[in-house]
Structures are given as structure tokens and as C-alpha cells.
Specification:
By secondary structure, this protein is α/β, with parallel strands linked by helices. The protein is built from twelve helices and 15 strands. The longest helix has 19 residues.
Length: 441
């Protein structure tokens, strides 16, 4: 805490102190869904210092921020307060709409953690993109030309590739079944550090259940067709069974490595069942079982990642914002708020092949697709806009008239996301080619 503590901050700490016991009981009660443990909550009673999480810009308390104390997570109270531990302990905090932050307790002085408001404006880099110096440097240059301040980087991509030599992939045998691997980045933590120094917020994208190398290494985990043979999707790639806890553990191992490397956020993609009929899994393929598997995986990931104070996010189909069921893939939007900090619907107009009510040509009204879908998602979940960060289309249409998505179409999507109060946005281009003239400035 600075010596020049504002009266507003002092008041926030005083209010937090009066609620110390209530905050602890709230943390214990909310614990299982956040990766909190009883031991971690009990440890908070030992400290005498009091802490508060505030907005670095307004100095207002940040209610219900997630606070991690020596690896144990709890919720701050409605006034940003939390019981701080003894001197020397490491304390970190995060909340949707902010950058994460950390501090070390010094003596018994009150502890203030200030969170900086932040809205990511991101572009995507695949394994090939991040390992290619030309593509990576072009993406970094968008910070100066267009204000791009975040990068979504594949930690495990659509074909099971990783940009660093991952010990987890090696140990489980998946690397032996990779046909083409771009050169690994030898010191990925150094790259993460340099991108952070340049001001970028870094999101590790992990493709979960679409994993051809893992299915080849462990056929017993592969999704099967009706005849019992390994199933392949439209790209001739295999998937692994979302019910298998071994598959959960492997992907969370990769997420944990990404957190250790310094990524700010872990984003799970293909965290769903394949959208094809007649497939066989290790458990009955019912709606209840599917949704339980997806939420169960996300809960397990959140619990394991709790010590790292990283944000946890997942990508969902655009139609999941609208469909009242789980879209037959296990994604029920009402159930995703608890295990996730951010929900990221893929709101590509080209993906809305059946249109929307009153909108039969989504590519002609990209802003309407984004705005109405986010409104639907907020209404159904009761979550504020800041809990959503959509994927937006920055690639040629493939479903309607094959038009280019240039400056106007991208701008309409961005404006709609901003108007919905979303936590920024992410632009998807599978080739990782972003023309500064076509992006928002």
C-alpha cells in the first residue's frame, strides 16, 4: 500500500475489516466451485492484516474479486475485502474486466491490491503463426498501428501440435503420432516475458477433445462410430472421449504448464462433444451426461489452476447462445458461468448457417449477429457483458456468398461487442494474416 492512502481506500479497508468473518465463511461456502479448499480458508484466520481489492483507476472496491493466498483461492466480499495472511505471504487477485495483480504482505499493515481495468483486443496466432517470426512480428506490430493489446496463442492446436516441446505430450505418447511439427520455440517463457514487456495480455488456447495424436496414442480413449471403429471428422481427424478422466487430466496438465510459462488466461476450445450422430462413448450419450462432463472438466481445470491466478475461459458455438438445450454437444450456456471467468461465443456470421429470427443472411448484418447473440447470452445467464468476450470473423465467408470480411464488417462486429459491454473481443483468421488497413484503429 502506498503511504498516501486515500480516504476512500481507508474506508474500503475499514468496511472489509468489519466483514472479515463473513468473508471467510463466504469463501468456505463458495469454495468447491472455485478450487477453494477448507485448508486454504482456515489458513486465512491466522493473519492479522486486512486486505482489500480496488480499481486502480477509480479506487473503488472490486466486489467478489478472486484472491489467491499462497496457492489457495477465496472470494473477496462485496466491498473487496479479504482476510490477509501473515507477513511474507504471496497474495494475488483477479476479476473480470481487469488485469490480474499480485503483492507480498509486509508486516501487519493493511494490504491493497489495485487491479487495472483492461479490455483485450486480440488476434489469434496458431502454432504455425507463433513459431513463424514473420507472422508473429506482424501481429505484434498491430499494437502500434491498431491498438491490438492481446494475443490468443495455441498451446495445443487443432491438430494436437504445441509450440514448445511439451513434456506432458511426450510422456503420454502423443508426440510420436504428430506427422508434421513446426520448429519448437526453445525458450517459450522468454517469448512470453518479451510479449508481456511489450504490453500484451496473453491467452493460451488449448484444443481439448479434438486430438488426433492423443487418440492414436491411446485408441482406448478414442471416440468410436456406430460400428465400433475410430471416428474421424470432416478433416479426417480423431477425437477423444470427453467422459474420460485421463483425457481431462492430460489437458489440464498442459493448461498448468501454460500457466507456469506466464500466460494470463487459459482458454479451452473444442470443449464439447463432436457434432455428429451415432457416435459411441464410454458413457451413455445423454444430454444430462454430456453437460455434466463438460462442466466437470471445467470445474476440475479451475480447481487445478487456482494457485496460478490465471483467468479461465472456454469457447462455445454461436448457436449455444440461442439454443435452449445443449446443442447436442454438452454446452448449456446457463451452466458455464460458475466454472469460467469468461465465456467466448464464436459469433462468426458465416457460422450461423440457419440464420437468426428475422435475419436470414447473417453475413449481410454482422453487427446484428454479434449484438443480438450477446444480448441473448446475457439474458439467459444473468451475467453482465464483462463476462463475455466473443470471437469475431476476420476471414472470408464460407457459407453464403463468399464475401471478404473487410474493414466495415469487422468494425460492425467490434462496435456491437463494445455496445454489449463485453470484455473486449478476439479476431479469428486461420491463416493469421491481419491487414492493419482492415482492422479497427
Amino acid at each position: 500500500m502506498t503511504a498516501a492512502m486515500t480516504s476512500f481506500t481507508k474506508s474500503a479497508i475499514q468496511r472489509a475489516t468489519r466483514r472479515k468473518v463473513l468473508a471467510w465463511f463466504a469463501a468456505a461456502a463458495l469454495g468447491p466451485g472455485l478450487g477453494f479448499g477448507a485448508a486454504g480458508a482456515n489458513a486465512q484466520l491466522e493473519g492479522t492484516a486486512q486486505g482489500v481489492v480496488i480499481d486502480a483507476k477509480t479506487h473503488a472496491p472490486v466486489p467478489a474479486a478472486i484472491v489467491t493466498i499462497d496457492g489457495h483461492a477465496l472470494r473477496a466480499d462485496a466491498h473487496g475485502g479479504f482476510p490477509a495472511p501473515a507477513s511474507g505471504a504471496s497474495v494475488a487477485a483477479r476479476a473480470p474486466g481487469y488485469r490480474r495483480a499480485s503483492a507480498v504482505v509486509t508486516g501487519n499493515a493493511p494490504l491493497t491490491i489495485a487491479l487495472t481495468p483492461f479490455r483485450p483486443q486480440a488476434v489469434y496466432l496458431s502454432v504455425y503463426g507463433v513459431t513463424n517470426r514473420t507472422l508473429r512480428d506482424a501481429a505484434v506490430a498491430l499494437n502500434a498501428s491498431n491498438g491490438i493489446n492481446a494475443l490468443v496463442i495455441d498451446a495445443k492446436g487443432d491438430r494436437g501440435l504445441t509450440p514448445w516441446r511439451d513434456a506432458t505430450r511426450d510422456a503420454i505418447g502423443a508426440i510420436r503420432h504428430v506427422s508434421t511439427q513446426p520448429p519448437y520455440i526453445a525458450d517459450f517463457s522468454a517469448l512470453v516475458a518479451s510479449l508481456h514487456e511489450a504490453g500484451f495480455y496473453l491467452i493460451a488456447r488449448i484444443v481439448v477433445f479434438k486430438d488426433d495424436p492423443l487418440a492414436s496414442a491411446h485408441p482406448e480413449w478414442a471416440v468410436r462410430d456406430a460400428a465400433g471403429n475410430p471416428w474421424h471428422d470432416r478433416e479426417s481427424l480423431q477425437w477423444v472421449d470427453p467422459f474420460r478422466r485421463e483425457v481431462w487430466a492430460h489437458n489440464i496438465d498442459i493448461a498448468e504448464e501454460a500457466a507456469r510459462l506466464g500466460f494470463d488466461e487459459i482458454q479451452f476450445d473444442y470443449v464439447r462433444f463432436p457434432d455428429a450422430p451415432g457416435l459411441r462413448f464410454s458413457e451413455p450419450n445423454t444430454r444430462e451426461n454430456r453437460t455434466a462432463a463438460i462442466v466437470g472438466f471445467l470445474d476440475a481445470a479451475r480447481a487445478r489452476l487456482a494457485p496460478y491466478n490465471v483467468f479461465v475461459a472456454a469457447d462455445i458455438f454461436g448457436y449455444v447462445c440461442w439454443n435452449l438445450d445443449d446443442t447436442a454437444i454438452g454446452q448449456q450456456i446457463e451452466q458455464l458461468g460458475a466454472p469460467l471467468d469468461y465465456i467466448s461465443p464464436m459469433l462468426y456470421p458465416s457460422g450461423f448457417t440457419w440464420g437468426l429470427p428475422g435475419c436470414t443472411r447473417p453475413t449481410e448484418e454482422p453487427g446484428q449477429v454479434v449484438g443480438r447473440s450477446l444480448a441473448e447470452a446475457k439474458a439467459r445467464t444473468g451475467l453482465p457483458g464483462v463476462r463475455f468476450r466473443p470471437w469475431l470473423q476476420a476471414f472470408r465467408d464460407y457459407a453464403f456468398d463468399h464475401r471478404d470480411f473487410g474493414a466495415q464488417a469487422i468494425r460492425e462486429q467490434v462496435d456491437a461487442a463494445d455496445a454489449a459491454g463485453s470484455d473486449g473481443w478476439m479476431l479469428w483468421n486461420p491463416r493469421n494474416r491481419y491487414d492493419p488497413a482492415q482492422l479497427p484503429h
